[in-house]
Design a protein that fits this description.
Elements (H helix, E strand, L loop, with lengths): L1 E6 L22 E8 L2 E2 L3 E5 L1 H10 L6 E18 L5 E21 L4 E21 L3 E22 L6 E8 L2 E13 L4 E13 L2 E3 L3 H13 L1
Antiparallel strand pairs: 1-2, 2-3, 2-4, 5-6, 6-7, 7-8, 8-9, 8-10, 9-12, 10-11
Length: about 230
C-alpha cells in the first residue's frame, strides 16, 4: 500500500500569493511517497524538500527514468508436517510461498509547457509450492504442485497547469496475467525397473483491466487524451 503527498506547489504552478495571506509564512514546497507493508508503515520516500531541490531535479531530469522506491522478497508461508496414515505409512508434507515486490516511479516535468507526466508502477510475482512424499523403503511416491504468476499495476498521472482551471488525468491499469500451474509426479519401486515420472502443465489467462475513477477525472482524461 502506498500514497503520495505534496504541499506548497502553488507558486511553482504559477499561482500568485493572495493579499490576505501576505503576512503568513509561505508553505515550503515538498512531495513524497508514503509506504505501508504488511500493516507496518515504512519511512516515507521524499522526492524533494524546497523549491531549489525541485528545480534541480527538473533541470537535471533525475526522475525521468524509473527509480526504485521499494524492492524485496517476502516469505509468506513455510509449513512442514508429518502425517501418519492408518496403514502405518508416514507422509511428508511441505508448503512454501514467496512473493516478490518492486515499486518504481518516474516523473517528467516541463516548466515551458507547464505540464507533467508521472508513472508509478507496482510489480509483483508470487510462487506457491506444495509437495507430498511417501517413502516406505520398498516403494516411494512424490507429488509436487507449483502455482506461479506475475503482474503489475500502473498509476499514471498527467497534469496541465498552463491555464486555469488546471486539468489532471489519473489512470490505473493492470495488464493481463498468465497463471502457471505445474504438477510433477514420481513413483518408484526398490529393486524393480518400475519408475514413473509425469509432468502436467496448465496455463490460465486472466484479462487485464482499467479502473474507473470519479466522473470529473473521466471528463478531464477524455479532454487531455484527445489532444495527444
Amino acid at each position: 500500500l502506498w500514497g503520495l503527498f505534496a504541499g506548497g506547489l502553488g507558486n511553482v504552478a504559477g499561482r500568485g500569493r493572495r493579499c490576505n495571506d501576505a503576512s503568513q509564512e509561505e508553505e515550503e514546497a515538498t512531495a513524497g511517497m508514503r509506504l505501508m507493508l504488511m500493516g507496518a508503515e515504512l519511512r516515507p520516500y521524499v522526492f524533494f524538500v524546497g523549491t531549489s531541490e525541485l528545480m534541480g531535479h527538473v533541470w537535471s531530469g533525475t526522475g525521468s527514468e524509473p527509480t526504485p522506491a521499494l524492492q524485496g522478497n517476502l516469505l509468506m508461508m513455510d509449513h512442514f508436517q508429518y502425517v501418519a496414515l492408518l496403514n502405518g505409512l508416514v507422509v511428508e508434507l511441505k508448503l512454501q510461498g514467496v512473493i516478490s515486490l518492486d515499486l518504481t516511479g518516474s516523473i517528467q516535468i516541463s516548466l515551458w509547457n507547464r505540464n507533467s507526466h508521472s508513472v508509478v508502477k507496482t510489480s509483483g510475482a508470487a510462487l506457491v509450492q506444495a509437495s507430498a512424499a511417501l517413502n516406505s523403503g520398498a516403494a516411494s511416491s512424490n507429488i509436487q504442485v507449483n502455482v506461479a504468476g506475475d503482474t503489475h499495476l500502473e498509476f499514471i498521472t498527467d497534469l496541465e497547469f498552463y491555464e486555469k482551471p488546471y486539468k489532471m488525468c489519473i489512470q490505473m491499469t493492470q495488464p493481463g496475467l498468465v497463471l502457471r500451474h505445474n504438477v510433477r509426479k514420481h513413483e518408484g519401486v526398490t529393486g524393480r525397473k518400475h519408475l514413473v515420472r509425469t509432468l502436467k502443465k496448465r496455463f490460465q489467462f486472466i484479462a487485464g483491466k482499467s479502473y474507473a475513477l470519479h466522473r470529473k477525472n473521466c471528463e478531464y482524461c477524455s479532454i487531455m487524451l484527445a489532444e495527444v
